[in-house]
Amino acid sequence: MEKVTIVVHSGELDRFMSALIIGNGFLAMGAEVTLYFTFWALQRLVRGRLSKAPLSRMNFFGLGAWMMRRKMAKAGVASPERLLSDFRAIGGRVIACEMTMEIMGIAKQDLDESLIDEFGAVGLYVHETLGASKTLFI
Amino acid sequence: MRADLFVDVTGQTCPIPLVEMRKAVMKAQKGQVIEIRGTHAASKKEIPMAADSLRLELLEVSDGPDGSWRILIRK
Q1: Where do the domains of chain A lie?
Q2: Fold exhibited by the domain A3-137
Q3: B14 annotated active-site
Q4: Residues B23, A88: contact at Cβ < 8 Å?
Q5: ipTM value of the model?
Q6: Cβ atoms of residues A122 and A5 within 8 Å
């Protein structure tokens, strides 16, 4: 089975959504997928923050993100909550970066542990990626 | 042909039709037929691609009214 690892580094709505959509796409086609949440993306796993993301461009103090969410809802695009829950329902794994937690002062209890399969550092990512055929950094 | 599992992704967009197909494939027993109905144009091409990657048998791709489609896959 093909194996894919994705470093989810960006916490902005557009980039983070791309990671979830691509991850789901790989799973649907039969690949094994692991998402490594690090830096700004890890903030999205803090309780209640999954959808509270700015845009990477044209955010305009949140107005851009608000408009983008409205446009996405109108186009029938699934929410980040649904995409992440589907991702795990079809076999995807979510790993939270422990070093980011230390740097940003995020404790395990701050994170929504129902969204996370495992905690780990770069070694876990590298070890899995050495056995993977593809890796992405988003 | 009668399907054993039925997936309706009418009005849903990328990547939900693929995701719901994958869920149905996980639920189905070997030999069972899955019927997927939807309206997302790209998924009409991509679900057969997924069937190929998952080594499933693509039985039928047909068009309905207003851009809707129906795909039958055997696990």
Answers
A1: 3-137
A2: Hypothetical Protein Ychn; Chain: A, (3.40.1260)
A3: yes
A4: no
A5: 0.88
A6: no
